[in-house]
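Order emerges. As here.
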Amino acid sequence: MSESADRPTPPEGLPPRVTEALSDCSPGELRKAIVHAQELLHYHGEAELPVEAEDHEDILRVTEHEGYTEVVKEFRCADGCDECPHGPYLYHVTEEPQPDGSHKVHWSFMGTVQKGE
């Protein structure tokens, strides 16, 4: 188990009782909690945002906030680029309702972040 100073900060708005319960879980129990939370989101008609790395990128951090997901990622371009990877870059990801009732994932570029932030 990691040092308590390395423990992740819970997202805004998460009730303390949930934070405490999750803090006491083993990795296996946490995986099951994730699955159950995703099932509950689908039950409530909410789909998870597709925040997955493409072949040419590395996601460094994903932080859930009220109304958006904060994503920090780096990009790699073609072989031979001496400046790779590029970034890291900060994005705010939201799910936007469409006129036909569907939802579209929207990535808003917020800017470059310092490594280690």
Notes: The two ends are 23 Å apart (CA to CA).
